[in-house]
Amino acid sequence: MNSKNRKSNTQIFYASITAFFAWFAIIFQFYLTKGSIANFFSYFTILSNLLIALSLTFSIFLPKTKIGEFFSSLSVQTAIALYIFIVALVYNTVLRGILIVTGWRLIADNILHVLNPVLYILYWLRYSEKEKLSWKDGVYWAIFPFFYLIYSLIRGVITNWYPYPFLNVVQIGYKTVLMNVGVMIIVFFIIGLLLIILNNKLKKNNDSQDI
User: Fold this and answer.
1) pTM reported for the whole predicted model
2) Cβ contacts of residue 29 below 8 Å, gap of 6+?
3) CA–CA dist 73, 55 (Å, integer)
4) Which residues of the chain form beta strands (DSSP E)?
């Protein structure tokens, strides 16, 4: 059996808990949200949490399927770790407090932006099968957020609705928004490179322990 398919009971349990919170937070937030389905799934937070839920569900419980093999890839899992890290970073340093939420919304908010990022990044650190990654992977990982940002701007022109204030061209203008988009892509790439360095260091340490 391939080593990637051998998963300990601890890994399965941890992945199950993480997947549960990801699915729960998405469904619960959807229940609490007033607005269109298209708007709901236009948040990068929701898409990133959905990737966590799908990744763990398929890689743990359906690893031999095409989708399971895709989500079992270290590159894919590292990309998801990058996306959810950016979600936590941007929300907790820039967006938290802009919209005051209380009660159940506050609980859902913190699961999406704090608990799930921590759970998944710890999963990536502990259980992702470490193999060498290159800087090119960081370029590939930046493609999804790039097209997401472009999609958000185009859809915003059509619907006059923007998922985040730093993308709202009506309020802050195209020049500022385009600068924000450029900065975001650079941040994705830089943090992606840091994850590559960390991953390769962890792989080297694991290899040295196996000798």
Assistant:
1) 0.93
2) 40, 46, 108, 109, 112
3) 10
4) none
Find tokens 């994850």 and name the residue: 195
Domain ranges of the chain: 3-210
Q: Which residue has the tokens 């960081």?
A: 138
Give the span between the Cα atoms of 110 and 124, in whole angstroms: 20
Asked whether the CA dihedral 171, 47, 35, 25 is positive or negative, the reply is: negative
Q: From CA 189, how far away is CA 159, in angstroms rounded?
A: 29
Decide if 153 contacts 121 (C-beta within 8 A).
Answer: no
Which helix (H) or strand (E) covers residue 104, if one does? Answer: helix 103-110
pLDDT digits (tens, 9 = 90+) for 103-151: 999 999 999 999 999 999 999 999 999 999 999 999 999 999 999 999 9
Nearest of 147, 138, 150 to residue 178 by alpha carbon: 150
| C-alpha–C-alpha distance, residues 196 and 134, integer Å | 7
> Which amino acid is residue 31, in one-letter code?
Y
Q: Is 162 helix (H, G, I), strand (E, B) or coil?
A: coil
